[in-house]
Amino acid sequence: MRKAIIVGNWKMNGTVGEAVHLVAELKSLIGDVSDVEVAVAPPFTALSAVSREIRGSNVRLCGQDVFWEKEGAYTGEISASMLKDLECHFVILGHSERRQFLGETDEWVCKKIMAALDIGIHPIVCVGESLDHRDSGRAFSIVEEQIRGCLGRLSAGDMETITIAYEPVWAIGTGKTATPEQAEEMHHKIRGILEDTFGRDTARKVRIQYGGSVTPDTIGDLMKQPDIDGALVGGASLKADSFARIVKFNEK
Ligand code: PEP
């Protein structure tokens, strides 16, 4: 009942020309896909051009971040209405790289979620533990704290437009994918927290993606897990061919 969702996070990579080229190639490779929701998150500089290139296709546009204020003196920031203006459907929030390098907190993520929801953009909210947290047996409590801190103020109705991306920090860009069982264990836990907070019906509707070194070779087994509804893909989304093979995971 939950449609699979695969999103490519291009991070800080590529010129406008390279971004358009990449998405044009992707479009032609996955034009026949209708059972998976697909989105790409180019750098801000390429959003406008990529938006034009994907118009009318089955690829949606995703921002990599947003600021919570509507407008004004916030140098370097981008508002939710600016993303909406470029036809962004999703926005990634609370990515671990932002938490690590830019001091992003759960409270900020919560404010950003509100700003996105206010204007009708669907947040993809990232949570995940570090290796240190996992090794010291704190993985579940850290993720629970992030979920409650980022989502605790939302209504059940809001939750239905939210996607959660579980991204263990130790698996991002390291080539170490969590095993399908490790990922499922956390996804199941997350769904339990959602059930506890928002009720069973809502918890069953929320899509939970896995992220962390996903490749065409690992996606199939991950997607067989009952609580894994998709993937947030970094490195492997920068080549149209590998991302298309991930999107077409069930054609293997
Ligand atoms: C990410 O940054 O969201 C990510 C999952 O990256 P990678 O696939 O490169 O690990």
Report on this model:
The chain has twelve helices and eight strands. With 252 residues, it is α/β, with parallel strands linked by helices. Strands 1-2-3-4-5-6-7-8 form an eight-stranded parallel beta barrel, surrounded by five helices. α3 links the parallel β3 and β4. α7 packs across α9. The relative contact order is 0.15. Bound molecules: phosphoenolpyruvate. Phosphoenolpyruvate binds next to β8. Phosphoenolpyruvate (PEP) binds next to β8.
Brief overview:
This protein is of the alpha/beta class. The chain has helices at 16-30, 44-54, 80-85, 96-102, 106-119, 131-135, 139-151, 156-159, 180-198, 200-205, 219-223, 240-247; strands at residues 4-9, 36-41, 59-63, 88-93, 122-127, 163-166, 207-211, 230-233. Helix content is 45%, strand content 17%.
Question: Can you tag this structure with a few keywords?
Answer:
252 residues, 8-stranded parallel barrel, 8 strands, binds phosphoenolpyruvate
* Adjacency order of strands in the biggest sheet: 1-2-3-4-5-6-7-8
Distance between the termini: 21 Å
Low-confidence stretches: none
Shape by Cα distribution: globular
Series of H and E elements: EHEHEHEHHEHHHEHHEHEH
Query: Structural class per helix/strand content?
Result: alpha/beta
What percentage of residues falls in helices of 4 or more residues? 40-55%
Total count of strands: 8
Largest sheet: 8 strands, parallel, barrel
Write down the overall mean pLDDT: 97
Rounded to an integer in angstroms, the radius of gyration calculated over CA atoms is 17 Å
Helix run count:
12
What small molecules accompany the polymer chains?
phosphoenolpyruvate
> In percent terms, what proportion of residues is strand?
15-25%
